[in-house]
Design goal:
The protein has 180 residues and is of the alpha+beta class. The relative contact order is 0.19. The protein has helices spanning 2-20, 26-29, 58-71, 109-120, 127-147; strands spanning 40-42, 54-56, 74-77, 83-87, 90-100, 152-164, 167-176. Strands 1, 2, 3, 4, 5, 6 and 7 form a 7-stranded mixed β-sheet that branches. The chain is built from 5 helices and 7 strands. It has a single domain, classed as Nuclear Transport Factor 2, Chain: A, CATH 3.10.450. Helix 4 (109-120) packs antiparallel against helix 5 (127-147).
Length: 180
């Protein structure tokens, strides 16, 4: 039970960071992660390793989180309801949550347009695939805008943590949203 409480405490600290979204404290927040280039964060738009929203290494994960804090909505994970399993020095958890788009879409439009542009710069996609990916991404953003601020989007969050001594840290995280 003590280890489960310790893992839940790390998840709560993660939630606290996403609640405050204080970019000035991001380096401190990154201490919640294994200090290794092997860490991964897989976002809701990921479909291929090392491509859009599948980040590996401390710098990439930090950049992902910074963009979340600047441009994404308010994330609320069900910390108390998280299912946590532990085997030795490895823990894994799953929980639900939601995202509320709290800021106006217009504040993030330049970021979204850059994301759309990145599809056209990919050499691994055919012209048709580039068009489909950019259009899909743009339609999703348009749908988010139509729903407006204060709309609650469901989330699924899973993670793997490693213990080093008495300290649990995130190694891998995966964010997902139900297909709609």
């Amino acid at each position: 039970m003590k280890d489960i409480s310790a893992v839940r405490s790390v998840l709560q600290k993660f939630q606290d960071g996403y609640t405050s979204r204080d970019v000035a404290r991001l380096d401190d927040f990154m201490q919640l992660f294994v200090q290794s280039e092997a860490i991964e964060m897989i976002g809701i738009g990921a479909s291929q390793r090392a491509a859009r929203e599948w980040y590996e290494g401390l710098d990439q994960v930090r950049m992902f989180i910074e963009n979340d804090w600047k441009y994404w909505g308010d994330v609320r994970l069900d910390v108390e309801g998280a299912r946590i399993n532990i085997h030795g020095d490895v823990a894994w958890l799953s929980t639900t949550g939601f995202l509320i788009q709290a800021q106006a879409f217009d504040l993030a439009i330049d970021f979204y347009l850059q994301e759309m542009k990145s599809f056209f710069e990919r050499s691994d996609l055919s012209a048709d695939e580039k068009l489909v990916e950019a259009t899909h991404f743009g339609m999703r953003r348009w749908r988010e805008r139509a729903r407006g601020t204060e709309y609650s989007w469901s989330l699924i969050f899973t993670a793997v943590l490693l213990r080093n001594g008495d300290v649990w840290r995130f190694h891998t995280q995966h964010w997902a949203m139900p297909v709609d």
